[in-house]
Amino acid sequence: MPTMKFASVLLEKNPRSLSYPSLYCKADGDVIENKTDGSWLLYGKGTYDFSTYFNSLSVQKLRKYTRATKFVLHLELKGAALAVQQTKGGVFSAHPESVGKPRELAASQDWQHVDIDLQVDDDAVIVGFVISTDGQVALRNSYYALEYEGDLRPVELALATTTFKKESYIERNISLIQQDILASSEEIADHFHMYVIDNGRTLDVDKLSDEHVTIRPNQNVGGAGGFTRGMIEAMEQKTPATNVLLMDDDVAVSPESIKRTYNLLRILKDDYSDAMISGAMLNYEVGEDQWEDTGYMADGGSFTPAKPPLRLTQFEDVVFNEAFRVPKRVRPEQRYAAWWYCCIPISVIKDEGLPLPVFVRCDDAEYGTRCRRELITMNGLCIWHMSFHVRYNAAVERYQTTRNTMIAQCTTGFAPNSDFMHELHNNIRLELKKFGYINAKLCLDAFEDFLKGPQFISKPGVAEETFMGANKHKETLVSFDELQHQAEELHIDGFNIKDVTRQIVDDDVPRTIPERLQDYVTNNGQRFMKSDGQGYAVIPLLGWAYPAGVIRGKKYLIVIDWYNKKGAIRVKSADAYTEIVKRYERDLRYYKANIGRLRQEYSAARPELTSVKYWKHYLQMV
Asked: What per-residue confidence (pLDDT) applies to 531?
């Protein structure tokens, strides 16, 4: 049977590999790059375990999704005497388990090529290997190869990334792809094109473009518009793409992830030829932590990771990550793959249409649930992204999310089991309890724009204008020095920003049952038993945080964004509370009287809003 190289044994030199080497190799000796010949030195006597996130092989998933029939480890080594031991991880493996007898090699100053047929039983989730050395050993050109049935699928892979004034990120990623993919001798180099959709129009087109990299200046149409432009470009390139890989701009990526994605596409079984391949989101600042590896819409209306948080330097979490099965309670029509790294077949785009023109937020979740294809994930397919608490933006979470989820559900049937009215109600109540009147108004702005119907959002320019308006009207955060000054002007006794720590920001205190009931009925003293409140509390900026104990009975709430060293002071206001409640009640009356009509109008607009013709006009491509 034919054989293909599937995944390189990966060693890298970048901030994540230096800070978290156990993602690649767990060793009791140093692993050092030899710049003279590109090899890596296992620097001294010791044990070097490659049963890791990047260097184990996901045999269970390969057997399920692909036509692979046999797995081979190819190593090129020289130096001291050594032994290579195959390992595996089963569902309940806490540590790598040895498989078979080790392959022993005598010391040699010449390169030795070793091919090991890997033993894979039904219990194996992943397989890996350990090298035990008597001294220094050099390693190069090592990889996992697969034997497979049938012919390789013809794959033309397009990478589409959307950027807005994040030059340092995108220029670094272009350089990585040019060096490690396009300049490589691997098959992907001749079947790959990168599109950078520049919504900010700040990139140097002539400097960054070449035969395989296209910089496309674009209107500021958000992620939804930028990725849609990338889809259209991929469909209409000279040799049409078979798959388009959508990837965020402000991420770090290993080119090896892209190579493995390409190789996986070539050997998929027919049953999975229209599957989406999803890359995990790892924490940019804590590079071993996985935040999300596909998600789903909860019944209450929130975006929810499918898996619990995992630490991918731990062997048991590496196995769990591959063995995980989405619970049956998570219905397929609620699942999605986020667009920080998502590879979509062009055939699926042609069948299901293009995304909705919602600028940012919910565009990827809506598209994933609309398509309802198999979502394939695999260890080693990932990006590193800044965590959400670092990037919290009320204009996104309160305006964009509120409006877009409602638009999507009415237009394409997005997340049919989710109650977005429930989410709206909870978010407004939460903001009011925390005196976040400005953010509660953003929720209502979003709700009212949804009530305007599809003719409103379909107009070019509206999506950008409304998002910029939400950013303009959101709560203003000030520096800590200015925050202290504001507190002094308000005569908030006892507050000193120098005394505030993360412990204080994240703290809460318990409430008695009567206190809980009182807070629920009065919305923290703003209805029925109204009170002006006394004193202050320090709380986190994050909209979903609810430190119920510390905020009750207070007059001032000082919200802190500790990461960016900014904050704001909220003042309890019965008038502001009453105004928002009356506005919300008015909106609800309109909603109840018109929701049937709105659903019909949004649904009828779907064919146009997801068509190539509409989007080319929207993007000013014609």
From this structure: 83
**DSSP per-residue letters across 93-154:** -SSPEEEEEEEEE--EEEEEEEEEEPP--TTEEEEEEEEEESS-EEEEEEEEEEEESSPPPP
Separation between Cα atoms, residue 376 and residue 61, nearest integer Å: 9
Q: Tokens 């000796």 sit at which residue?
A: 29
- The phi, psi pair for 137, rounded to 5°, reads -135, 140
Distances (CA, A) of 54 to 126, 474, 564: 11, 41, 32
Mapped onto helix, strand or coil, the DSSP state of residue 593 is: helix
State the Cα–Cα distance between residues 420 and 402, nearest whole angstrom: 8
Domain count within the chain? 3
Task: Name every residue whose Cβ is closer than 8 Å to that of residue 383 and which is 6 or more positions away in sequence.
Answer: 247, 248, 251, 252, 253, 257, 279, 280, 281, 282, 340, 341
CB crowding 445-476: b at 16 or more within 10 Å, else e: bbbbbbbebbeebbeeebbbebbeebeebbbe
Whole-number Å distance between alpha carbons of 74 and 290: 29
User: Do 480 and 566 touch, CB atoms closer than 8 A?
Assistant: yes
Number of Cβ within 10 Å of residue 567's Cβ equals 25
Quote the CA–CA distance of 384 and 406 in Å, as a whole number: 30
**Alpha-carbon gap, residue 622 to 610, rounded angstroms:** 16
DSSP per position, 289-358: EEEESSEEE-TTS-EEESS--EETTSHHHHHHHHH----TTS-GGGEE--TTEEEEEHHHHHHH-PPPS-
Write out pLDDT tens, residues 9-65. 999 999 999 999 999 999 998 999 998 898 999 999 999 999 999 999 999 999 999
Q: Would residue 214 count as lying in a domain?
A: yes
616 falls within a domain: no
Residues 137 and 186 reside in one and the same domain? no
Domain that holds residue 549: 397-575
Detail the DSSP E strand segments found in 427-579: 478-479, 536-540, 556-561, 566-571
Any residues with CB less than 8 A from the CB of 380 and at least 6 apart, and which? 7, 10, 53, 54, 58, 256, 257, 260
Q: Final residue of a domain: which of 148, 177, 202? A: 148
- Residue 488 to residues 481, 550, 562, Cα–Cα distance (Å): 11, 21, 20
E-strand spans in 562-617? 566-571
Q: Are residues 402 and 376 in the same domain?
A: no
Model confidence, pTM? 0.95
Contact 203, 170 (CB under 8 A): yes
